[in-house]
Amino acid sequence: MDVRQLRYFTAIYEHGTLSNAAQHARVAVSALSHHLANLEAELSTPLFVRKPRGLQPTAAGERLYAHAKSILKAMAAAERDIREADGEISGEVSVGLSHSVVKAIGVPLARAVLADYPKLRLCLTEGLSGSIVMHLVNSDVDIALVYNPTAEPALKTTPVLEERLVCLGRREIIGGTDAPIAFAELLELPLLSLRPGLSTRAIIDDPGLLKKLESRAMLQMNSLQAIGGSLVAGLGCLVGTTLIMQEHLQSGALHVRPIVEPEMTRTLYLCEMAGRPATFALETMRGLILDLVDDAVRSGRWEARSLVADARRS
After folding, report:
1. If one looks up domain 91-160+267-313 in CATH, what number appears?
2. Which residues does the UniProt record annotate as the domain HTH lysR-type (predicted)?
């Protein structure tokens, strides 16, 4: 198996037919067919099912595509990195950020890249923490900031920030006082939550407390916009952070109360794939992200405890 075979295989997978793939790859259809036959013979398994309207990948083809995509992306990054080692930082870096992180540093990150690294192309993906981790594993993003990622050997995780969770809702739902609310009292309120699953498992550090909250939730949604609208409409309350509902708190539509007995926190992690080589562009982006997180906490824009100093030493 060589790089050319992987490139041709990827073209066939993405374009669905030999003729379309050949046009994209700028080679003859016969040459493409020859390389595919050799690759399948070498791997001793069919990679596509031949159908009248094109080629459908087999299970082996699906698995090979995931590997090929990661390998080709790493090779392209390595080539750019070495060629531009002595010049201005350039290339493309894909960053995945959870919704809260986008609210805190999304615009400052874009502004810093445009101002300080004009040849660096930033591709930003926003989503729930679990889905962002899947993008990272699938090579769709190079680096990510997510909450409480799954423990996987292939994933390098570094804690960078810790947030305290609060109760958010209308005053008539959670009470007009600023006094803390006990966790046991919180469970008696009409709770809203993100729908449980891989994409939303990161709301809180303590899995036992999370399970209790999820079991009592009257409404479960995988949409922060829908949850925000439901909170403003007085349909319930939410365990979250002040940052995620910042606009509604500032307008007075929602109220916030600290949670005690026990206090609850969630931890933000900087995540990368352990086996992927770092590039100058990726190292630059990592440092920039850490600077912005630390600055957001120090300036008071992000109500949290920064762990960036420890992250830099790790």
Report:
1. 3.40.190.10
2. 1-58
pLDDT (tens digit per residue) in 233-285: 999 999 989 998 999 999 999 999 999 999 988 899 999 988 777 788 888 99
List the CATH code of the domain at 166-263: 3.40.190.290
The pTM for the full model equals 0.71
CB 132 within 8 A of CB 125: yes
CATH architecture under which domain 3-83 falls: Orthogonal Bundle (1.10)
Q: Do domains 3-83 and 166-263 have the same CATH topology?
A: no
Spans of all domains in the chain: 3-83, 91-160+267-313, 166-263
Q: Confidence band (pLDDT; 50, 70, 90) for 183? A: very high
The DSSP bridge partners found for residue 193 are: 220
Instruction: Return d(Cα 256, Cα 169) in angstroms, integer.
Output: 7
Edge-first strand listing for the sheet containing 265-273: 120-127, 91-98, 143-147, 265-273, 155-164, 305-306
Has residue 199 got a pLDDT over 70?
A: no
Does residue 202 register a pLDDT over 60? no
